[in-house]
Amino acid sequence: MRKETQKLLVLALLGLVSVNLAAQQKAKKDTIKSIDEVVVTALGIKRQDKSLGYVATKVNGEEFTKTQNNNWAQALEGKVAGLKIQTAGAGPLGTSKITLRGAISMNLDQNGALIVVDGVPLGGTSTSNGSDAYAAGSGGDVPVDFGNNFNSINPDDIESVTVLQGASAAALYGSRGAGGAIMITTKSGKTKNGKVNVTFNSSSSFDSVLKWPDYQHEYGQGTLTKNTAGQFYYSYGASADGVSTGGTSSAFGPKFDGQYYFQYDPTIEAQSKSRQLWRSYDNNVKDFWQTGTTYSNTLGIEASNQNTAFRTSLTYQKNEWMMPNTGFDRFNYALSVDHQLNPKLKMVAKFAFNSTKSDNLPATGYNNQSISYFMIFQNPNVDLAWYKPIWKQGQYQTAQIHPFSSFIDNPYLIAYEMLNGLDKKFITGNVTATYNFSKHFDVMLRSGLELTNEERTTKRPWNSANYAQGYYREQYIKNSEYNTDLLFTYKNKFGKLNYNISAGGNIRANEYVQNDYKAIGLRVAGIYELNNAVSLQPIVPIPKDKEMNSVYGLVNLSYNNIWFVDVTARNDWSSALPKANRSYFYPSVTTSLILSDVLKLKSRLFNYWKLRGSWSQVGNDTDPYSLRQFFNPSDFPGGAETNNLLLNANLKPEMNTNIEAGMDFGFFNNRLNYTITAYQNNTKDQIIPVQTIAESGYTQRIINAGEVRNRGVEMMLTATPVKSKDFSWNLSANWSLNRNKILSLPAEFQGEPYTMFSVGGVLFYNAVVGGSLGDMYGYKLQRAPDGQVIYGADGLTAKSTEVEYVGNAYAKWRIGLQNTFKYKNFAVSFSIDGQYGGRAYSQSHHKMSEQGKLTNTLMGRENPNGMIVGQGVVQNADGSFSPNTKEVLLTSYYADYYRRANIETNSFDTSFVKLREATITYYFPKDLVKSLKMTDLSLSVFGRNLWMWTKFPLFDPEAATLNNGSITPGAEVGQLPTARTVGIQLNVKF
To answer: Per the domain annotation, does 759 fall within a domain?
Structure first.
């Protein structure tokens, strides 16, 4: 290419970075992004991006394969403005919820985006094991992350993902599109020159724990007990030194200073015969965790000719997670056939099969069966190796080794005996037929299915804290969803006006059933069969079937390829609503205007300016069987019990109204593109449960009430600051802000807060008019007017009698930045994202602080007699304040200051910055590749979660709790560690 005159341009990109941009004067060959880029919109309809009156962000398929996530969705984090991936930190399958533009519903489970694969929505049904995250002292079980359907999608099969960020973009999907939609297009097999292509991808990755709590290793087990000489001491069991101090879980014992005490001796499983060195085992929690591994191999074959495109792929993935004896095996098979039968009829068939198996998935939460519980209670002076035999000598399968407390199960018992098995088969498929009656008129018929068959087993051995005689459970879950769409389309033009008119309908049916069998107690230890049950408890299955019939229409108008207007309308009939209200209608209108064409702004500096706006209404129904009362099966075989929830036979649909406006700009022949969007989203007549008087015989009732508003701003910038023959630099940045406000609540509350849900009985998510969804309430410290903490006459903090606002679970704003550098045969890319604001309560922090396990409890340890004076004031009888001078024991002080109910001292800012992804790729020279009879060959080194900055003191500021089947933001209750991943990947193409 001949040399061109170059200009040096300095651009300030969102105030984040400054770059030197060599801008070529020759426009056509230097255009980076085309304004005519095609994206997939609702119903799988392909549109030019410039014609859309809403935001549709496209992410190419290679983003989902370059770092090989166990869950493909996590690769979207930080790459799309307004998008948040919320996971529960609960194990390798990484169930996640995608939220776009904040929470819109008081029902926590109704805020996720719709996932659509090749035009067919996924049901998204996720079944829990019925356990809450906080269940300390209540027996029973804790939640297990069994994964959901959309994280089973094979990232190697994804061609692209288009994120429809608002309700206007997803209006044609009706009820399920109120929170936006994620449009996944899978690979179809179209190749160049009709050749057969074979691809092989192989990756190996290794996981380690990203961040640990700040454990203290200066003091050991104990509670400030003194011997007859007046010295703090330790004794496992009563000894010559004094009474036993080895039964506590607290670490307020003696300092590690070379002394000797009677301690636990694993060789005799009792107190040592002589005094042993008092020492810290600094890695007695960390060494339980191992380096996790994931191996993945994919083989794909694709071919095409003039009439047919074909692709098939096989993927096998084996994961051994960081917790010993946990992980999964995953097998994916995909088939795609695209065939033009004749000039008028085209058929497309897609099929995908997923099998996920695991002998053991980790439990999460705060209860004996969770490894998190052990990590909280482990003491610094205890050697992890003492637990490894699991069973006491001569008492295999009947008596575990847990020398310090019968409430704390052996960690290796949890890993190797308390097993949570999974065998899941997941099938999706669709067939699409398109018939062109003429060049103006066609009809499309698409039928899709989603089938899930899941078997789960839960094994609990004898002698566990919650099941003295063992426990066994089998769950069988079958879920099927069928979607059929019929769409007629007429397109033509009249002068400069082009118009497309479409009308059609959808039939959706969902069938769900769960069979559950529990063996309460095992006759023979270690035999996990239902016929070995002391008491067999089958649970009568409750059906959850649902049907939805819909008709819809859309009109697309384009004037001179400059002004675009889309109008849609849809009417749904839902079986989950009463006959009088089950029909509901909602429209939308969107428009975009290419101002740069109108104003003829076609300079090299400023070449594209688009103005867009939209308005929509979207209805939403509710869960099936919410209208009339029925009996639930009870734990007593053959028995039934009334439902504590008073159902409502007069429910009407929620209604969501969305408006948005924005502009898109292109500079330097689209080397620099900038998008800004402002939106408002109102949801009213929400379907929510509220408390009712006990005399009614019910605890809650379902009503329509309340209105929630979201307002926000999203910005996205993409640029190619440098592009030459040997070197290029591409970057993208996004920033988003969302403000949520509760406009109204049920009249029954009369100014009182409505508790939407709670965690552990101490953290309350209260809805208050003028407040926001995600507002967290709980007890706080009482403070004097100057901010000092108030103490009582007992030397402990003064107690509040009312819960107060503590913070909000959601960030104030989020940001993402991606860079890709290419130099000759090398490519380097990295992705950084973060958030500002947000708050999370940590149950683990409470318990470890109460027990003296963290460094924040070292203050005052050297004080005489183990006493401490809390820093603050006491209130005098006349209302004035004076300094607190009352001494209290350290154990009492920390147990009170960090008590579970004190949400203030156990909740923290969740601002963070993460190096989310990084990749270095080498593309082998073309001559070498050709000599090996290949077309492409590359080798990559990659990493995820390589670095993090945060003030959050526990494992991960992106904290959430798997509470039964819901992912609850802003709460950490027995969270498992987050993984830092490094790996290597080989890509071969023949």
So the answer is: yes
